[in-house]
Amino acid sequence: MLIKSKKALALAVLMLLSLNIDAQTNGLDIKMPDGVYVVVNHPGELKSKIPEKMVQAIRRMKVKGELSNDDLSFLRSLAGRSSVRDTSGNRLDPFFDLDLSEAYIPLRGLLGRSPGSHIPDRFMSGCSLLRTISLPWNTERVGNEAFRDCQNLSEVQMPSSVNDLGSLAFRGCSSLVDVDFSKSLKTIENGCFEDCKKLQRVILPDALENIGNTAFRNTGISKIHIPANVKHIGPEAFNGTAIEFIDIPDGMQNIDARAFEGCRNLKDISVSPQNKYYSKIGDVLVNKQKTVLVRVPVITAGAYKIPEGITAIGNCAFSACDKITEVQCPKTLTKIGEGAFVNCGNLLKIELPATLQSIGRVAFQETGLRSIDLSSVKELGEAVFFHCEHLNQVKLPPMLEKIPTCMFEGCKALATIELPKNLISIDNAAFKDCESLEAVEFPQTVQNVGKEAFNECTALKIVKLSPLSTFGDECFGDCKSLETFEFPQSVTTIGHKMLYGCKNLKEVTVFWPTPPKTKNLADTKSTVLRVPSGSEELYKKDKGWKKFKHIEGF
């Protein structure tokens, strides 16, 4: 396996000349001032083989023999130097070329040593001096983060025995240009080549089966061929690349809809007729039965009509399709998956059919929707409309019992909301930062208001409560327009800083003869606390309520 730069051939020749390799049994042969060949007869003796005065000057090294953890630490110290100087103290061009092709790095455990070499996790992570490396001839796995952020690493020689590249193994190696993998490689783990921005050419081997999450995210790849044996491609595997065409091979079983998210040049996804899991309708990827919409190309623009017969929009199927303005749904649609339209910033309109039953979490996050009718929906995930800043009209399902967490958080244009008559709970941050919301009336069924449920609703003036039992922490915090607040006598739990930051709060009314437990309820300097007549002294002495400077009976 070869990972190389355009200067690979020249570097290889230079390395051989400078090392002038001579496999002597005495362990060390120095033929150039910056190149050494070391034979390790006993693990752990590498450092002792090299004269101390030579260590700082070494820029090229070849090692033979079995290496211990101490030997690996010594090699890492050479690659992690901040500078290189000759034996006279003069600065040299800083780089480190390391050849371990004749070395053996076993994985040691209770059952002994592995037959093949295993490059340890974080072996050379962050070693900016490392320019080239040849791995042991019998390497089976490159560990997690083994060469992460080796920014000057331009060439990696790998043997055909490598079958697994660990998570983040080469992440941030910004000098890598192309990759040729061995025939035996089966797994490229999560983030393996992420942020290798100069990486442009990748030829995946036929044996490859799995491509992990973000494996090639933010690389310079513009073309990719997916081998027939690949079964799985994880989320964002090719996010941010310039890929234009994708071929789904015979063996593909699971391709995450976000695998090609952010591929703004992606024009077409083709599917092998022999594939048992996927098919196409027009330009879009669907399941074999053509009932689930899996992925729409990011370049799709304008109004889009979902094909008839589709019963479900898959997770992230339209994510980052920021040129789509309108979506027309078929009457067969029953489900919208998680993140289905996330980051579709120009999506202004979608008409949901009466057949729709469920909408997954963050399904419409950061879209441009102005209005939405959810009348038919029975199940809503969390943060469905998170930061839909233009959403101003919402019709909730009449039988809805819970407003999920962060459901409308950041919907800055939402001025009014009619809560369903059967509503029981308003969950954490459900309406947080709805800065245009002016009034809210709770139906009599509501029992719980979650943490930060209406926090930072800066225009909120009117709150009509039900005989509920629980207020979460900061649930009305920073509601700067709120002037009065009346606690229902049914309340049993008052959250921390529930009314904190309500700068214009003039009056708080309670109906409990005995003060309930509370802590830092509100900014109390000018707020009047109204309590049942005869209870004034109890409230003035109570640790949680005595912070009110003005306590009056009624």
Task: Describe this structure as you would to a colleague.
The protein is mainly beta. The strands form ten sheets. The chain has a nine-stranded mixed β-sheet with strand order 2-3-4-7-10-12-1-14-16, covered by helices on one side. An eight-stranded mixed β-sheet has the order 8-9-11-13-15-17-18-20, with no helix packed on it. The longest helix has 12 residues, at 8-19. The termini are far apart. It contains four helices and 44 strands.
Task: Name some characteristics of this structure.
single chain, 554 residues, mainly beta, 9-stranded mixed beta sheet, 8-stranded mixed beta sheet, 4 helices, 6% helix, flat
Number of helices: 4
Estimated helix fraction: under 10%
Give the averaged pLDDT, no decimals: 90
Strand order of the largest sheet: 2-3-4-7-10-12-1-14-16
User: What are the low-pLDDT stretches, counting only 5+ consecutive residues below 50?
Assistant: 5-26
Derived structural class: mainly beta
- Proportion of strand residues: 25-35%
| Main beta-sheet strand count, sense and barrel state | 9 strands, mixed
Number of strands: 44
Straight-line distance between termini: 84 Å
- Describe the global form: flat
Radius of gyration: 32 Å
